[in-house]
Amino acid sequence: MTRYVIVPIVEGHGEVQAVPILIQRWLQHRRFHLNFSLDVKGPVRASGKGALKVAHNADDELGVEHYIEYALLRRPDAIIVILDADDDAPTSLGPVLLDRARASVPSDFPICVVLAVREFEAWFLSAFPSPVFRANLEASGYILSRRTLPRGTDVETIANCKAYVARLIGVPKYEPTTHQPALTGILPFTQAMCRRSPSFARLLAELDSLMQRVRRHRS
If we measure between CA atoms, which residue out of 29, 18, 14 comes closest to residue 207? Predict the structure, then answer.
């Protein structure tokens, strides 16, 4: 069986654990796991979002180009860069970072950039109305403060998703290294989630496209 390696590049400590879980679960959901594997060393972590956005500086080890060069040392079949949009417009920042990323790899190398709008945790909020997700939360020991989100909530406009998630799951403080991988491990993959969070829908579409490009590139 042919095995492939995907190396994620992330910006936060929580994503170091959560992103491999998310990608692996999606591969299993789509049955790609029969052919694909994640790099066992885990993601390449940038020292914050600013370290990815800033102009490339090899001496100071800054810029998305530096982290791609580092990821390439792991001999991946594909690279995916995942970061929070925060206050940046994803339609502006995403294409800029992708152009810079593509300039750092061979022309046919499978690579993509995905921005969570506004934060990775917005993807948890998009899942909260799902009875399956709430049941999984309660089975994990969380005491939920609500049964669903207020009508009309746009999860991609909430400025502090981490605090919002903490209130929903009944914890005094959201801890990325604890809660991000734990909640990622119980996310459902539903069409309703994708409707609530277009950036989550884009993530899944990019992963599917990446898998197809990896197969073509290897063959």
Answer: 29
